[in-house]
């Protein structure tokens, strides 16, 4: 038996699968980034040539910000994202009892520091905790066993300035910072509250307790000598705006809107990186089926700074950014590395990392921009099945596209009893979107941990 869990999202994704067959749905949609769960509050980090995306996790069917763990995804091409599961949850912080909300990860001296707001079970108020890990995908452990800082406000964000001084910013409704020490888990001096003025953060009308547009979610960074503070503005619903300054401590000048109110979530939350020569804006909306203000999804757009360093208006799309390069099918690829997943879920694998599971007839995975080159001769997959299995159809271009191979999967005696299956492949050449379409009888068919193609045995013709 599979462990009991909510089938709601799987049902939703089945509906989405049906919807995807309708001509009105864009065929190339890669936003939102994650389709297997609801995600929120993106915090991207570039490390060693890879983009790590840290998110929150809206529980299925939430009617509040019901969030219990955080998630990690990564990509090298901004189109296919690997699911690294949940290396941190409320249980990481013994002093926290609820509200695993918007965090931020900073890297320093070989370690990853994950700053998060959680509810302090002792005070009942929101506090900022910090966890530390030796890898970008964890595991993470509570660095202090108590809050780092606590003023019943949220949304931590860290900037490490060029002189080595690190700042922790956070706040809703105020905007605060402390100067972190080199250990990144303590600070010197007290909390400084940035004066919120119309010149600095835009003027909000009709709300005397919040006189500026600043609402929450500061994303502070430095680029080409200019300091940026990108924030969620004027709830509700929120838009994304920004201010700039000549130093990490201001003075800030309001620079206007980046992302207008869009996307059927009454909050938004920004994260910005430069990667592989491009600039990327992460945000969230309610784009998945069943999505809304408490069932959000993280998405990303590529953009180009204006010559003066200002940020253009960025609109939400379903296409997402163009792929950076291609995906190599002749090395091991995780099944949980996808541009789009339909009908499936992910779970921790007994072999490490994650696997794709809850696979039923008609479910599929889209892997974008797979460079087959002169051709593939065979396909190998790591699979497990507690039932009688099914088959993996390898299709190009769409889930109903050209069939280039079919791999049979038999029962293995358990959902984590792994074996390797191989089948011949014909007609897979060039760079194509690969669809792993799953087929078989009723119920759950099998799990997939990873896959790999082998190249054609035939030498290319000169
Ligand atoms: Ca399914
Ligand atoms: Ca895997």
UniProtKB/TrEMBL annotation:
User: Mind listing the UniProt keywords for this protein, alphabetically?
Assistant: Carbohydrate metabolism, Glycosidase, Hydrolase, Polysaccharide degradation, Signal, Xylan degradation
One matching Pfam family is CBM_6
Which SUPFAM superfamilies does its entry note? Arabinanase/levansucrase/invertase (SSF75005), Galactose-binding domain-like (SSF49785)
InterPro entries recorded for this chain? CBM6, Cellulose-bd_IV, Galactose-bd-like_sf, Glyco_hydro_43, Glyco_hydro_beta-prop_sf, Glycosyl_Hydrlase_43_Enz
Domain CBM6, by residue range, is 331-454
Q: Which GO terms describe its molecular function?
A: hydrolase activity
Instruction: Give the signal peptide range.
Output: 1-29
Q: What family does the entry list?
A: Belongs to the glycosyl hydrolase 43 family.
Any idea what this protein is called?
Answer: Glycoside hydrolase family 43 protein
Species, as recorded: Nonomuraea harbinensis
